[in-house]
Write a structure and sequence with these properties.
alpha+beta; globular; 8-stranded parallel barrel; Beta-galactosidase, Chain A, domain 5; single chain; Immunoglobulin-like; 774 residues; 3 domains; 10-stranded antiparallel β-sheet; binds (2R,3S,4R,5S)-2-(hydroxymethyl)piperidine-3,4,5-triol; 20% helix; TIM Barrel; 40 strands
Length: 774
């Protein structure tokens, strides 16, 4: 709901309120953003507003008629440069009058239903949205600034963006043009960001806000695995489950920038948008520049509350309509089991096994085209490799379908290997700076998406393969950061943004006419995990690291911003490819189940027991798929530093994962809590049965077997393939109130006694618990 009064604008979602107003001088003053305040009166606004009853020393007064009106001390919705506000401005513009001074003053506003599209950029969508458009004008030039606020009734999210337009004759030049800024009084805030690198994406970092400016930025050409665009600021006392938390995220996949500045008057400014790094955008008479949208939320229910607002928003306003709430298939991916070494026959064998274990989609990953037998060659070419597929791809896809599996295919459309037919024929398609040597990433160059011919080449080749093979899933990869960014098709300073506009155009042209295709975006894992890509691809390959213990950080970090339905999560082999960590098969599944499940381990060497275990995992996941993919996801606080607890809740049942990182000797009792239940209703909780493989216990099995076996001998190895122990299964009945307090689980193994009620977790052990109402 949007309410406008004489000089104020009140934006209401079910649980949040946002208020701004026009000052006497026409600036937009920020009044309040926080948990819902119903029935707001002018007195409320007056009481909430920041006071300026005294003049502060060394401030610059905007007008001699009111010496207390200093822009440096006013919480604002937008601030220019050079009029006494010394905080960081969201825009740095070389103005038509030749200076950098800008001062945007209210001109007009209007409100309307629905969302407003942005030319060339994806946006959130939804019928239940309302928008407010406020137009401001620079006091001395014909530069107009339009601020757009969109209120999403269903998800407690408000989005903001800005449009700048030059109606003046002399040209202007944008050197920085962010999407939004917002000032608030500091409430002992902490800043949380999600940083990492390849295979260690989105680790959560929290630090106190100090005077000065904190920046979270990507300069790689993508939103990056180094710094995810999402940022939270929260009261220092906020936990996962309590306290006031603000979240901000950008609907954009390129270089991003956000800042949080604490100034000398105790005001915090947050701004977000396209990175100003090597950005310079000419704005001639009649031209507009539209910035990407920022999604904002606030919750007094801790980080979980803010995350759940974002999750609802993404599931209903970002994800394509065709894929909203739609069950995502359990997939099998050929990459880790085969890399480049496969042919039609070996893949069909894997596919048969995948099908027999319950999987639904077979994804043919890298290596099916051109001379792509390693990562040195072939990217950019779309000829099917006839050594691997003598009959082409269609017969292979048909065989999968005949087996009852869907066919999915991998592309890396934005790249070219110098050793490829494409590069030999069209070297000008690659992003290179003619006067400099080209630096490589994974032996490849980036294609120049600013060039319309390159865009056509990609669209034509991909669509013909999709249409010929009938693929229903695409994995869209992008495996290097951009360097030597230069294009004859994009004036210096416009390259990075034009590249992303080119990417969005390609995605739109390929997938808009083919909405039945499930797109999974990937960029060496989560190097482009952002709301922009999610507008096209309902799920993203979260990370090349599938080690479940590392995934607790990665999925746990990303879950602050993105729902489980968006995170590809696969079970792979152990010891793990990147960490060499040996983890139980059960834990690999238990972690992956809090995402979109897939398998990427080599099915050829599984034992009978492992096969059974996997078939049961897949069946369990399918039975609870809606809860895992679309349930309300929470990270529960744990008093222990070696435990992580996640929960999904679908309104009827909850599934909780209790993960142990490192085991402790004589571990104290573990408490399992459930959130969201009705306090008076009664629930039954039971452990998902899972197998304990004998090999995990080596020589210790002598304590439970009547015979003393050689831990590395043939008999134990054989026994491990044919037999497994059953992990302790617990069942409890309790009220919702008791479960919120927490139930004490059976003891873990403490070194001296074992029976079937002993939980054998060790390092990296875990269990899933299902709670249903009785
Ligand atoms: C990087 C991806 O993240 C992997 O899953 C795989 O698709 C490889 N690229 C293939 O080259």
């Amino acid at each position: 709901m949007i309410i406008t009064t004489d000089n104020a604008f009140i934006l209401q979602t079910p649980a949040t309120t946002y208020i701004l107003r026009r000052t006497n001088h026409g600036h937009l003053e920020h009044i309040y953003y926080g948990p819902s305040i119903p029935d707001i009166t002018p007195q409320d606004i007056e009481s909430l507003a920041h006071k300026r009853t005294a003049q502060a020393g060394t401030t610059v007064a905007y007008t001699q008629e009111d010496l207390t009106y200093s822009l440096d001390r006013i919480p604002l919705e937008w601030s220019g440069i050079g009029k006494g506000d010394y905080r960081f401005s969201p825009a740095e513009i070389c103005m038509p009058d030749g200076g950098y001074i800008s001062d945007f003053i209210y001109k007009s506003h209007n409100t309307g239903d629905g969302t407003l599209p942005i030319k060339g950029l994806p946006t959130a969508k939804g019928h239940n949205a309302k928008h407010l458009k406020i137009t401001l004008k620079d006091t001395s030039t014909e530069l107009y600034l339009t601020l757009i606020y969109t209120v999403f009734q269903n998800s407690n999210v408000i989005t903001r963006r800005a449009i700048i337009e030059n109606r003046d004759t002399p040209p202007a030049k944008l050197r920085r043009m962010l999407s939004m800024m917002l000032d608030m009084p500091n409430q002992d805030f902490h800043i949380t960001t999600f940083a990492g690198d390849w295979a260690k994406e989105a680790h959560r970092n929290t630090r106190p806000l100090q005077p000065g400016m904190f920046v979270n930025e990507s300069r790689t050409g993508a939103s990056s695995n180094k710094h995810n665009p999402g940022v939270f600021i929260a009261e220092s006392i906020a936990t996962q489950e309590s306290g006031q938390v603000y979240g901000f995220n950008l609907v954009y996949s390129g270089n991003h920038f956000s800042f949080v500045e604490l100034n000398s008057h105790g005001l915090v400014r947050i701004g977000m948008g396209i990175s100003p790094h090597c950005f310079e955008w000419p704005l001639n008479q009649g031209e507009k520049f539209e910035t990407p949208e920022v999604a904002m939320t606030v919750s007094d229910q801790g980080y979980n509350g803010a995350s759940q607002n974002f999750h609802d928003f993404i599931n209903t306003n970002i994800i394509l309509k065709e894929w909203q709430a739609k069950p995502r298939p359990v997939l099998y991916n050929s990459w880790e089991p085969c890399f480049f070494n496969f042919n039609e026959g070996s893949l069909l064998k894997l596919a048969r096994q995948a099908k027999s274990l319950g999987m639904e989609l077979f994804v043919l990953d890298d290596g099916w085209f051109g001379a792509r037998n390693s990562d040195n060659a072939g990217l950019g070419d779309y000829e099917i490799n006839r050594k691997k597929f003598p009959r082409g791809l269609k017969p292979f896809a048909d065989r999968l379908r005949a087996m009852g599996l869907e066919f999915g295919i991998w592309f890396e459309p934005e790249m070219v290997n110098p050793d490829s037919e494409l590069y030999r024929t069209h070297p000008e398609y690659a992003v290179e700076m003619p006067s400099r040597h080209s630096t490589m990433g994974r032996n490849q160059l980036v294609l120049d998406l600013c060039n319309p011919k390159v865009r056509d080449y990609i669209v034509d080749n991909i669509t013909s393969i999709l249409d010929e093979t009938g693929a229903t899933y695409v994995k869209w990869d992008m495996n290097r950061h951009i360097s030597e960014f230069y294009s004859p098709h994009a004036p210096a300073g416009t390259f990075f943004h034009k590249y992303i506009l080119g990417l969005y155009e390609i995605l739109e042209r390929i997938f808009h006419p083919r909405p039945h295709i499930l797109l999974e975006s990937c960029s060496s894992g989560g190097n482009r995990f952002d709301l922009g890509m999610l507008c096209f691809s309902p799920q993203i390959w979260t990370s090349d690291c599938t080690d479940p213990i590392e995934r607790l950080n990665i999925q746990g970090g990303l879950s602050h911003l993105y729902p489980p339905s968006t995170m590809g999560a696969h079970v792979s082999d152990a010891p793990h490819q990147q960490t060499l960590r040996d983890t139980p098969l059960s834990t690999r599944f238990n972690v992956a189940s809090f995402g979109v499940l897939g398998y990427e381990l080599d099915l050829r060497h599984l034992s009978k027991m492992e096969r059974r275990e996997i078939a049961e995992q897949v069946a369990f996941y399918k039975a609870h798929r809606q809860a895992f993919q679309y349930g309300t996801f929470s990270r529960l606080e744990s008093p222990k530093d070696n435990k992580v607890t996640w929960q999904v809740w679908d309104g009827k049942k909850a599934i909780s994962g209790l993960f142990q990182t490192m085991a402790k000797v004589s571990e104290n009792p573990d408490i399992l809590r459930f959130k969201s239940f009705h306090p008076k209703k009664r629930y039954r909780v039971s452990t998902r049965p899972q197998r304990l493989f004998i090999k995990r216990f080596g020589g210790l099995v002598k304590h439970i077997l009547p015979v003393n076996l050689n831990p590395s001998g043939i008999i134990l190895n054989l026994a491990n393939r044919l037999h497994a122990l059953t992990d302790c299964v617990e069942t409890y009945e309790a009220s919702g109130a008791a479960l919120a307090h927490g139930i004490a689980l059976s003891n873990q193994f403490m070194g001296s006694h074992y029976n079937e009620n002993t939980r054998l977790l060790g390092d990296y052990g875990s269990n899933l618990y299902v709670a249903t109402s009785i």
